[in-house]
Design brief:
27% of the residues lie in helices and 42% in strands. By secondary structure, the protein is α+β, with helices and mostly antiparallel strands. The protein has a five-stranded mixed β-sheet with strand order 1-5-4-3-2.
Length: 131
């Protein structure tokens, strides 16, 4: 079971770095990520909105997983988002800079899908790179 849950989270990060065509196979319809901004819908629609709109200022996005492990119904991940800053973000004009933002997430898995997520990211480090 643990291996399947780890594989599911790895697939989530691959999918969210791409076109997200299969995201509904990965996240439940009522999936909630507690770090997403208020007002985003639940489920696959909210995931697409976050990665396309909130992180849309960063192109060529990919996730480099540093550590990943599972226990019971949870998967914990330490990773870095690596991308190019190609559009305005949080008041910062597009710089073209390559950024790397470290973060840690925990996902809860139920019935083979992600149902809940929590994340803490190094936003101060990100904003320092945009200066």
């Amino acid at each position: 079971m643990y291996e399947e849950n780890v594989a599911l989270v790895r697939r989530y990060y691959r999918e969210t770095s791409g076109d997200m065509a299969s995201i509904a196979e990965i996240v439940a319809l009522d999936f909630v990520d507690h770090h997403f901004p208020a007002g985003l819908p639940a489920g696959p629609e909210g995931v697409r909105a976050f990665f396309n709109n909130v992180l849309g200022a960063f192109s060529n996005r990919h996730i480099e997983i540093c550590d990943i492990f599972a226990t019971e119904d949870k998967v914990a991940v330490r990773f870095s988002l690596v991308a190019s800053h190609t559009a305005d973000f949080a008041g910062y004009a597009a710089s073209g800079k390559q950024i790397e933002c470290g973060a840690m997430s925990i996902f809860r898995v139920q019935n083979g899908k992600l149902v809940e997520g929590w994340e803490s990211a190094d936003l101060l480090g990100l904003f320092n790179q945009l200066n």
